[in-house]
Amino acid sequence: MSESMVMIGTRKGLFLARSDDGRRSWRLEGPHLTGAEVASCAIDTRGERPRLLAGGFSWHWGPFLVHSDDLGATWHDPEHAAVAFPDDAEAAVRNIWQITPDGPERPDVVWAGSEPSALWRSDDGGTSFALVRGLWEHPDRPKWEPGGGGQTLHTILPHPTDDQLISVAMSTGGLYRSLDAGASWAPSNDGLEAGYMPEPPPPYGFCVHKVARDPVDHTRLFQQHHGGVYTSTDDGGSWQRIDAGLPADFGFPIVTHPRDAGTAYVFPLTADMDRTPPGGRCAVYRTRDAGDSWEPCDVGLPKDPFHVGVLRDAMCTDLQSPAGVYVGTRHGSVYASPDEGDHWDTIARHLPDVYCVRAAGIA
Amino acid sequence: MEVTVHLHGVLSRYTDDQRHLAVEVPEDATVDHVLDALAQRYPGAGRRVRDETGSIRQHLNLFVDGQQLRELGGADLRLHPGAELLILPAVSGG
Q1: How many whole angstroms separate alpha carbon A282 and alpha carbon A66?
Q2: First to last CA, chain B
Q3: pLDDT tens-place string over residues B3-58
Q4: What are the chain B neighbours of A60 within 8 Å (beta carbons)?
Q5: Cβ–Cβ < 8 Å for A94, A150
Q6: How far apart are the CA of B7 and the nearest CA of chain A, in angstroms?
Q7: Do the Cβ atoms of A60 and B60 come within 8 Å?
Q8: Which residues of chain A are within 8 Å of residue B90 when distances are taken between CB atoms?
Q9: Domains and CATH numbers, chain A
Q10: A173-228, pLDDT tens digit by residue?
């Protein structure tokens, strides 16, 4: 039976949950990378063997991006930092907030997003990265301001079939698109409402929390905004609200199904100052019709009053069938659904704050 | 001239497990020059002490002959032959 893994990045290290019985039971390994905040992780399954990547920072020793080709037994931490600004940028990386392997047609390309907001490209599978200068030198950059997590580039969406198209999202900053493989960029935030800026808002400065791409219709995006869940049917060219059926329009993560068009998941939180689940109910919400309707998915999730949030990268799906859905909380629990959100199991508890989760079949 | 750099145990992972390094630098060298030499010899240690802009990481404390470097004026401080540079993680975190 195939083996599955969930990478769990936390405020204090990385944990690995592994299952070899079809995601029915899990065993927890770790912590790895002790003493570090692990803000980003990825399981790259494009090669002959899976590569685990993890990024973050140590309060004492600075940022890091490391990888393991033996499922966490050893970690490769290059002598020269994998992600570092060139001298002329006059900036220093504080944290690594996103690691995104590109598609299977570009098996050596891995993207990273940092604080301060910058996009990085690796052509050697994530061992070393180069600054994408087109975005770093964008005239809007001085106007981007830090959100609660810092001034971060947290979402990277390479187009699955067209290597000229790539989008990124920053908090704050908003969504920016490139039509020429990263050489030039333009903000792409039309239609977003921004209660935190005067009307009419400028084209930049939006607090995008997370964006995900539809697996079938590649021009459709889903966005959890700082107030509002949106979709775009033109690759981010314009945005329309789809949160009418949700108990709250605030939240941080949004993820899509690996194969089913129009299927996405969110974890609503009461806006704007509470940022806890509405009514103290722990529930993931799922749409199967691109946001026309939403249904709670909470069978197996805690039933007692629940006042804990989920961070933007602490939700993911895997590529398996049926699709797995995974949620990590700020009180150190990780819930896994092996059946697309219908039922949930607790696969880890009493961990530090969960910053990110990523899951994949690894054998 | 020669100065001695004393490293916290975590940093010694990146200096072939050496916690005490004799570093040869020109006369009138500054702390920055010593850190340059450290980074050239052991890049993994160097990037954990200073960021890309050359700033000493916020949550590290450096001491020269037992005195806090910040109180001595910072990394431009000129050293004397035989100076002792101690690099320690600060009391921080949570």
Answers
A1: 33
A2: 40
A3: 999 998 889 999 999 999 999 999 999 999 999 999 999 999 999 999 999 999 99
A4: 10, 48, 57, 59-60, 89-90, 92-93
A5: yes
A6: 13
A7: yes
A8: 60
A9: 3-362 (2.130.10.10)
A10: 999 999 999 999 999 999 999 888 888 888 889 999 999 999 999 999 999 999 89
For the question of an ipTM over 0.95, the answer is: no
DSSP A59-83: TTTEEEEEEESSTTSS-B--SS-SS
Q: Closest partner residue to B47 among A62, A89, A91, by Cβ?
A: A62
Question: Nearest residue of B to residue A95 by CA position?
Answer: B51
Name the CATH superfamily housing domain B2-77. Beta-grasp domain (3.10.20.30)
Residue A14: strand, helix, or coil: strand
Query: Which residues of chain A from 76 to 105 reach within 8 Å of chain B, CB to CB?
Result: 77, 79-81, 84-85, 87, 89-93
> How many CB pairs lie under 8 A apart between chains A and B?
43
Q: What is the 3-state secondary structure (H, E, C) of A168-222?
A: EEEECEEEEEECCCCCCCEECCCCCCCCCCCCCCCCCCECEEEEEECCCCCCCEE
